[in-house]
Please model this.
Amino acid sequence: MTTMTSESRTRARRTMSGGQARPSVPATIAKGTVFSIACALVILPFIGIVATSMAPAEQISAAGGLVLFPERLDFSAYDAILSGGIVTRALGVSVLVTVGGTAVSLTVSSLLAYTLTRRALPFRRGLTLLVVVSLFFSPGLLPTYLAVQSYGLLNSLAALILPTALSAFNVIVLRAFFGGLPPDILDAAEIDGASEMRLLTSIVIPLSKAALAVIGLFYAVGYWNAFFSALIYLNDSAMWPLQLVLRTYVVDDNTITGYDLASDVIPAQPALQMAILVISVLPILLVYPWLQKHFAKGALTGAIKG
Amino acid sequence: MITMSRRTLLTGALGAGAAMALASCDSGGGTDPVAEQSANTAALPTYVPYAGVEPDLPAELGRTSAAFFAYPDPATFSTEAPGDGQPVRFMGPTSFGLPPALPDNPFWQEMNKRIGSDLDISLTPAGEYDAKFSTTVAGNSLPDAFYVGSMPARAKFMVAKAADLTEYLSGDAVQDYPGLASIPTDSWQECIFEGSIRAIPLNRGLVSLPSVLMRNDLLTSAGIDRADITSFEALREISSEMTGGNRWAWGDAPLGHLRRMADIPIRWTIEDGVLDTNLLDERQHEALEATRALVADGSVNPDAAGIPASTKKQWFGGGQAAFISDSFIAWFSLYVANEAVEGLEIQAMGIPGMTGGTGTQNLPRPNAGFTAFSAEVGDRLPTLLRIADWLAAPFGTEEYLFNKYGIAGRNYDVVGSDPVPSALATEVNIGSLYMSDAARVIYSPGRPEAVQSAWDHQSAVTAKTVPDPTYGLESATASRVLNSLTGELSSVEQDIIYGRRPVSDWDAAAQAFLDGGGTTIVEEYQASYDAIQAMQ
Model:
């Protein structure tokens, strides 16, 4: 009978089920400290933004800018922003462009991706190659501007959607996902007389919710964050999306006036700037948890299948 | 009538120590300075100052702006609407908040009515304007009038795409447009391209002097007399006294001001017709050491680096900063923004020498840019010029009052003879002032003491000035690499000021600036300067 020494017992305790050594207590504390600092570095600025947006004007003035802990909650910045002025209108434009644009993008991306998976498609490889090539060669700003201009889209919200409606990367991811669906199901439906459109809408899309959710999120984030296309294509500031308004007030440091807010009461400028920032980030933060369950599956599709 | 020939201006401007008159034929990116300069032969518009009002404090070229203690009894400037009933499209930058759209903006509607044409104005945040302008140019979709953004080969663009205004504005012809004629001659220098007038200037003159503004009420309550700032040591001591609790003397590290005190406000120099740079001058160390000392003393707000200008102004208004660097004209906007601050008194800091005596004020460019009309406007050009003339109606006129302050009883209230902006004043910010603007004066409604102080300050600091000798000179290398070289140098400046690098590192950084293109830039400026001299 073998007697286990205290040293070997310790070693055994440190050995985890996977065969890896359990880290020592100091190492665990060190790792925890490093990760905590890293998390704090990410979270603290965000807390500062949210806190400042809800802080009273006198505290912001006393602090000379950002505050971390509001003395009391003051939602006047949000009241002012959502009171029907330029910021409110810009929020509406952003929602419209994001929802409309994502719908258009998902539709055209699904149609193209599905088409590229069909074996009966002539020159399928060549067409797929064309899509891939477009990943590496961007048309550039000026040719895109000239195209938008020649289609008569300048100064219209369509200019914020159509030039970026189709992402080659997203099409390739979707094509990979569609191509991975069991061909027997599609064959059976074809034998039963289903048209290509029926195959797409009744079989392929319902089975691809994970991929579509992820691609939809990519598109939505892209539309929501876009400001440069609005800057270039729109002449009427009444049509500006939230991100361009946000840039005007936060990055370019222009003063937010009562007119911009349709409000007689103008809260502290940092509170207004931070409130616009929170509102611009919030929708994406709210949507993400709903899509998270699809995210890993959908995002990995493109990584392992071509 | 005051007239000034171009030759007179060039001679005056490019001589060492010339005050305000700066020969500026083209700030674009031409590559042949001799050809560019020799082609600029258009007669400048005759300068006819508006005689309808007498300033309370006089204007003097290179020394002071005209100043008014109160708004004069408004004179009518034009008898008929300048427009032709057709819309006028204009694109320009803005540094203000967005104005309400035309249907919600009574001021804009009234302006269209008074002009007799609808102004269709497209505004872009100033920081993004160049990108918008470039794509609009590339798309050949320029509107009737446009603020001219930065671009390479601007001279060639202007000649190809901007309407030639020479016939209408050159020499005495400009007197048909009295508003434009009241813009000082030095402003027009920048609007001449290849021998023709292609743009109208947006004059700022001396109101954009780089300055340090002070909360004099805070100094007074601390028992400090601003006249005691007579050297760097005195400034340092007062800065320490003004720092404490939640207040720092400085809202920014004042390297620019200390360079003025050290007599090196501009990096380019000219002596006996030879252009050079003072980057390797010993006084650079002196200014850096001094700025670094203020930071080390804790007299500069530790959050100052990288903080937006609006935050610094907030510190100033809230009393967390007693001194901030800004443009001279911010003197009055800071009063407006901080009306609720009891006892507020703003003054600008004088410029003593580092160890006593007098420092050197650098003179700003005369314009905030210029506006051109599309070459495709054809027969409408006189109409567009009349509209520009109307928008440039001089101070003291009814039109100026409307353009700057809006509708009486709505955008401003009349107190005495002064227009005091109301809560609806921001309605006026539709961007028309970027299309055409009057020559600037010193005036702040209801603050005659501030006007007097501001004029006195101008008069005092412009006793010893230096213009930028490179204004109007051409350097292809500068248009290509100067921004990036300056950025690298500024980065080293910041490191030195905040103690991350020793002052001795400056010389290596300055040499890198010169080796990276600075020397070539000096040579190209010199060639451009010599070309102008050869014309004399």
In short: The interface with chain A takes residues 91, 94-101, 122-128, 131-132, 135, 138-139, 141, 246, 301, 303, 307-311, 314-315, 318, 320, 423-424, 426-427, 429 of chain B (CB under 8 Å). Confidence is low (pLDDT under 50) at residues 1-39 of chain B.
